[in-house]
Amino acid sequence: MRNILVTGGTVFVSRYVARWFAQKGDNVFVLNRNHNPQEDGVTLIEADRHHLGDKLKAYDFDAVLDITAYTREDVRCLVDAVPEIRRYIFVSSSAVYPETLERPFSEEMRCGYNSVWGDYGKNKLEAEQYIAENIENYYILRPPYLYGPMQNLYREPFMFDCAIKNQPCYIPKDGSMPLQFFHVEDLCRFIEIILEKQPKQRIFNVGNPDTVNIKEWARLCYEAAGAEFKPVFVDESHAQRSYFCFYDYAYDLDVTKQCELMPDVKPLSEGLKESYEWYVNHKNDVNKKPYFEYIEKNL
Question: Any idea which fold 3-142 has?
Answer without folding.
Answer: Rossmann fold (3.40.50)
